[in-house]
Amino acid sequence: xxxxxxxxxxxxxxxxxxxxxxxxxxxxxxxxxxxxxxxxxxxxxxxxxxxxxxxxxxxxxxxxxxxxxxxxxxxxxxxxxxxxxxxxxxxxxxxxxxxxxxxxxxxxxxxxxxxxxxxxxxxxxxxxxxxxxxxxxxxxxxxxxxxxxxxxxxxxxxxxxxxxxxxxxxxxxxxxxxxxxxxxxxxxxxxxxxxxxxxxxxxxxxxxxxxxxxxxxxxxxxxxxxxxxxxxxxxxxxxxxxxxxxxxxxxxxxxxxxxx
Length: 260
Hints:
Elements: H1 3-15, H2 25-32, H3 37-48, E1 54-61, E2 65-71, E3 77-83, H4 94-97, H5 110-131, E4 138-142, E5 145-149, E6 152-153, E7 158-159, H6 171-189, E8 191-192, E9 201-203, E10 207-209, E11 216-217, H7 223-239, H8 248-258
Antiparallel strand pairs: 1-2, 2-3, 3-5, 4-5, 6-7, 8-11, 9-10
Helix pairs in contact: 1-3, 5-6, 6-7, 6-8, 7-8
């Protein structure tokens, strides 16, 4: 058996092309909702050009996508985000993508819209990363599959926890770091996350923004509204830890004025 065939079988075995039945059936029901035959072909394509060498189990599952732990050619872990093509609810995406000058001829058909949504996350990750905002570094994109940096203990291949699940040594410092990241994202990356919460921030010694597909350019008609919502979410979360925060409206206005 050649290397290519071994890798193909590894992907199929790990992602459940032939799902087992019994106690693991629920896990594979989730997997089957993401890994359809066209997506397997995309994985083979990424494998053939060296972007991944293997794909293992799921790190996280969601309505839009699942994230799997993969390996690069050196055996180091990478994150493989696979967006759902068949079961995704895509109508809400239009609010965040229509009018973005980076994307033309946007159609409501999920088969067209989902790959654009994945590409939007790739481009947003690039912008954040280049501006110095802590995000997973993007490596490659092909249709509905995004390869990016694995955040966590790379030697043990243990993913970093979400902010909501972490006991912080200094919540006030963490809050200030996140507000700084929002400001840098606005001024230097030209982006507003637009869905920032304790569910979309990893913690690995510092906050790391994830799930940035809905992030909009600062020129977006609703950028100010989304910015305020992000800051509201953060002040709400940290106020539960007795962090005394400035009024979200004041923080929002400061960031908006700093970008003028």
